[in-house]
Design a protein that fits this description.
It is built from 16 helices and 18 strands. It is an alpha+beta fold and about 475 residues long. Helix 8 packs across helix 10. The structure holds D-malate and zinc ion (ZN). The site of zinc ion has 4 residues, from loops. InterPro entries: FAD-bd_oxidored_4_C (IPR004113), FAD-bd_PCMH (IPR016166), FAD-bd_PCMH-like_sf (IPR036318), FAD-bd_PCMH_sub1 (IPR016167), FAD-bd_PCMH_sub2 (IPR016169), FAD-linked_Oxase-like_C (IPR016164), FAD-oxidored/transferase_4 (IPR051264), Oxid_FAD_bind_N (IPR006094).
Length: about 475
């Protein structure tokens, strides 16, 4: 179904009256980047793309859309890997993009909080914290474009969860506009507040299906005095887990990141980057990137890192290691890790599974899932990487070099992702550790959530969004009427 032009004109006129003509986009050339997802796997249609600049404008847009039954797709930096931030192809939805709400509202270095509008990019939030001599610890590769509202809506994770937690752990208060235009405000910087249901958590991880987050109070942490980074070849996924145990034991809580990288993942990213060499002299099947950070000075932190690596050698967990000798080295190690995602997007033909299992099961899971996938697709490149310290790996079998990307995905996406997700689920794991559900995984939820969980999700949805106007067709699998 596409929207008739009189309804679209009425929507446009009404929204222009709220936000001004320049903040409403309708021409295809102008809306293109707002309706196409980050990985360019889906291209939807919007009746209008609206860019409000205040919470009051968001509230007025939402109230109008609610009265006139117009669906709304909330959007931040549009970096969702699950197609959660772009509209479907019906063309009746308004895309409400928060980019113009990009002001840092306050920093309180006594309370250690940073209050921002939802459209502030993660990089800008981190910079504002740093200017105040503090750390906002969420770290993800897309920090230059992803926004705090989207980070909250997807409960973003990234590379420092092991130390600091997910976005849900890093927020004290939010402001959100409800589907009918009412404003829910709990922009308070309280670390203790047991006054009934903690409603902010409904909106965190809801991917814009219950309302639109417009501002947040974020937790700030002390800046570590020093960090130490190593790129380490390990004997196996099991050796990696055991090395992590050693690192935790010997560093007394200084392990900030512990990222797994498979041989094919490193091959792919080095090929993509072109002018960057592997930190290690030889090719290895498995590597980890370890970062320690703490209030200790640089020399003692490096001594701790060496002690961890020596213990790893003695136990035959570690095969080789490169310790970053400078900030530039550490940045290169991290660049190698963080660019794996874009390397896959550019290569095409990647079966993206984002699974987590208990840390005690992750090594067996990686071995078993690799074996089973290679039985199915013997020449797949096993691009496996990610946040092993959280029990979360991006398990992304990639097409063989000479295979056509589209044909490969058409044949293998479903059987492989079903296999990998099923194995993770069987280990008590999750089929989406940190990327969310969006459009891509929505129907899979029916298999992996219990009937009670699905019913509760729909009950919450209907309580907050009875007209099912918020990001429709995302997250919640259809369940009869209303779905
Ligand atoms: C990452 O860890 O690099 C991100 O989650 C992105 C991705 O896996 O593609
Ligand atoms: Zn990740």
């Amino acid at each position: 179904m596409s929207l008739d032009s009189s309804t679209r004109d009425a929507t446009l006129r009404a929204l222009q009256a709220i936000v001004g003509d320049n903040a409403c986009l309708v021409a295809d050339a102008d809306t293109e980047s707002y309706v196409t997802d980050y990985r360019r796997i889906s291209r939807g249609k919007a009746s209008v793309v609206v860019l409000p600049s205040s919470t009051e404008q968001v509230a007025a847009v939402m109230a109008w859309c609610h009265t006139h039954d117009v669906p709304v797709v909330p959007q931040g930096g549009n970096t969702s890997l699950m197609g959660g931030a772009v509209p479907d192809t019906r063309g009746d939805a308004v895309v409400l993009n928060l980019s113009r709400m990009n002001r840092v509202l306050a920093i309180d270095t006594v309370n250690d909080t940073l209050t921002v509008q939802a459209g502030v990019t993660l990089a800008a939030a981190r910079a504002a914290a740093e200017e105040g001599g503090r750390l906002f610890p969420l770290r993800i590769g897309s920090e230059g474009s992803c926004q705090i509202g989207g980070n909250l809506s997807t409960n973003a994770g990234g590379t420092a969860v092991l130390r600091y937690g997910n976005m849900r752990d890093l927020v004290l208060g939010i402001e959100a506009v409800l589907p009918d235009g009412r404003i829910y405000s709990s922009l308070r910087g309280l670390r203790k507040d047991n006054t009934g249901y903690d409603l902010k958590h409904l909106f965190i991880g809801a991917e814009g299906t219950l309302g639109i987050i417009t501002a947040a109070v974020l937790k700030l942490m002390p800046q570590p005095r020093a960090s130490a980074v190593a790129f380490v070849a390990v004997a196996s996924p099991d050796a990696a887990v055991r090395l992590l145990g050693e690192a935790k034991r010997l560093s007394g809580g200084a392990v900030t990141a512990f990222e797994l990288i498979s041989g094919p993942a490193l091959d792919l990213v080095l090929d993509y980057l072109g002018n960057v060499a592997s930190p290690l002299a030889q090719r290895h099947d498995w590597m980890v990137l370890i970062e320690l950070s703490s209030g200790a000075d640089a020399a003692s932190l490096e001594a701790t890192l060496l002690e961890i690596l020596e213990s790893g050698y003695e136990q035959q967990l570690v095969q080789d290691a490169a310790i970053a000798a400078s900030v530039a080295d550490a940045q290169t190690f991290w660049r190698i890790r963080e660019e794996i995602s874009d390397a896959q997007t550019r290569t095409g033909g990647s079966i993206k599974c984002d699974v987590s299992v208990p840390l005690s099961r992750i090594a067996d899971f990686v071995d078993e899932a690799s074996r089973r996938v290679l039985e199915l697709v013997p020449d797949a490149r096993m691009v496996i990487y990610g946040h092993m310290g959280d029990g979360n790996v991006h398990f992304n079998p990639l097409r063989p070099k000479d295979a056509d990307a589209k044909a490969f995905l058409a044949q293998w996406y479903k059987p492989v992702s079903d296999l990998v997700d099923g194995l993770a689920h069987g280990e008590g794991g999750s089929i989406s550790a940190e990327h969310g559900i969006g459009a891509v995984k929505r129907d899979d939820l029916r298999r992996y959530k219990s009937q009670v969980e699905l019913e509760l999700m729909w009950q919450v949805k209907r309580a907050l969004d009875p007209k099912n106007l918020m990001n429709p067709g995302r997250v919640l699998p259809a369940m009869g009427e209303g779905g």
